[in-house]
Sequence to fold (173 residues):
Amino acid sequence: MFLFLVVALQTALRKVGDCVIRRCDESDLAAVIDINMVALPEHYSDYFFESIHRELPEAFIVAELDGKVVGYIMCKIEFGFSNFRKLGFVKKGHVVSVAVLEEHRGKGLGKALMLEGINGVMHKKSDEIYLEVRVSNTGAIKMYERLAFEIKSRLRSYYRDGEDAYLMALELS
Fold:
């Protein structure tokens, strides 16, 4: 029974070239944390990654190439005011972090991770999904727009270094 569960968790959700997109396993968390440290300026505690994984494993996804994790997305579910409806209180997914190692960018892995993260949030019957992105990250903004995310607001001095962020959202229902 346990072996079947481990195999099921490792099953590919999709393939991008030679890369497998699959749900994150607890044993992948150290690699995910390493990617976060080298690929992004924002860092979280080990406990934070573990808690997000426990809360919503359906939307904690990794990209694996030749047995090595090269990218990830982690999302959580929140309840709050809608980014689309006035006075609407909704269940929404939040893309907390998404990253691909620099040498593997431009291969469609970020898009595949986003699509599977969205699927995981939809599995939990969320009404919308949102994320924050640096205003200078034009490549990511363009990708999110191609996925139908809309810029909803500009968050002044959102990041620790003082850079603004765009809040981007996608209506799911």
Remarks:
- Residues 37 and 141 are 21 Å apart (CA to CA).
- The first helix runs from residue 2 to 9.
- The mean pLDDT is 93.
- The radius of gyration is 16 Å.
